[in-house]
Design brief:
This protein has nine helices and ten strands. It starts with a strand and ends in a 17-residue tail after the last helix.
């Protein structure tokens, strides 16, 4: 039996639809929202309005690109949360209507779980490069920084999380301090390649267990830049690469220290990374070096599946379909939605 899953992702500012056939991707269409760049961050009301404009053409494009018709879809999976409620409502409402009109199963998906399971998206039936259970997943994005024990496709346990800000948020907020446009994370990554990562020290938090904190780093960054500008008003312009390299180095070190502790304590030698920040070249390099040094198997997702996308929602929906875990029409989206 061929199982064709239509995935819909609308948790923040990207409208995305994808079609997977027995776990193999057939299409993954994403409509970005450039309107937020002028405001230095995502404006929820503008995001939800853009989703309303994009949802129908994006779904239509995904089904056509997959070489299918709407009636070929076996089930529809959508992001229930976490995310912006207005944005989630657009995706969930469309998914409900699509499900009801064709009398096919409706599947709700945790956005974070989707990031983790992005490792199981196959581009070819023969793809076998996937983490073995159990594995540790470092989930790092604009809104989340977590360490997760993944026991199976649908069983996960969060053992560490951020107590305030996430790594991606730290990148973007610090980028704003040095006048880089939104989103700042990719620009910092690019500029850091030509800088000295040890040139400017920033404070690091001391948090027990596997939890993260990045609010102190943001404060340290702000005060350091402010003090250096007092000494040299052109400090940012003259040291931009070094600033970016030092910030990126500090964030990566914070992430890796906790991950290393989790590996030591659990004895799990399978490690994956997921989320938007997993696209960061510095973090990818640090993970690969760590893997070689510690004898740990490192799994890094393809760039196409690091940021928000519907393929990760569809693959999660696929595994939930196999388990018969379907949602009812009265299900509601959740701004906060724990992975476990």
């Amino acid at each position: 039996m061929t199982i064709n899953i239509l995935g819909i992702e609308s948790s923040c500012d990207d409208t995305s639809a994808a079609v997977l056939s027995n776990g193999v991707i057939k299409s993954n269409v994403i409509a970005n929202q450039d309107v937020h760049k002028a405001y230095g961050g995502v404006v929820p009301e503008l995001a939800s309005r853009a989703h309303q404009q994009n949802i129908i053409p994006v779904v239509d494009a995904a089904i056509k690109k997959a070489g299918m018709f709407a009636n070929d879809i076996t089930a529809v999976a959508f992001t229930r949360g976490p995310g912006l409620l207005g944005s989630l409502l657009v995706g969930s409402s469309f998914a409900k209507g699509f499900s009801l009109a064709r009398n096919i199963p409706l599947i709700d998906v945790n956005h974070l779980q989707g990031h983790v399971l992005a490792h199981y998206i196959k581009e070819e039936e023969s793809d076998i490069d996937q983490p073995e259970f159990p594995f540790l997943c470092l989930l790092v994005s604009g809104g989340n920084s977590q360490i997760i024990i993944v026991k199976s496709h649908l069983e996960m346990e969060v053992i560490g999380t951020t107590i305030d800000d996430a790594a991606g948020e730290a990148f973007d907020k610090c980028a704003k301090v040095i006048n880089l446009p939104y989103p700042g994370g990719p620009l910092i990554d690019k500029l850091a390649k030509d800088g000295d990562p040890l040139s400017i020290p920033f404070s690091k938090p001391r948090i027990q267990g596997y939890n993260y904190s990045f609010s102190g780093l943001k404060t340290s960054f702000l005060y350091t830049i402010r003090d250096r500008i007092k000494e040299d008003e052109d400090f940012i312009q003259n040291n931009l690469n070094n600033i970016c390299a030092s910030l990126q180095y500090t964030i990566i070190e914070i992430l890796m220290n906790k991950l290393n502790k989790a590996v030591k304590d659990t004895g799990i030698k399978e490690v994956a990374v997921a989320g938007g920040v997993s696209a960061n070249s510095g973090l990818r390099s640090a993970l690969l070096e760590y893997g070689k040094a510690k004898g740990v198997n490192i799994h890094i997702p393809k760039f196409a599946y690091t940021t928000d996308n519907a393929a990760m929602i569809a693959i999660t929906g696929y595994y939930k379909y196999l388990k018969g875990e379907f949602a009812k029409q009265d299900i509601v989206p959740l701004a906060r939605f724990s992975i476990d």
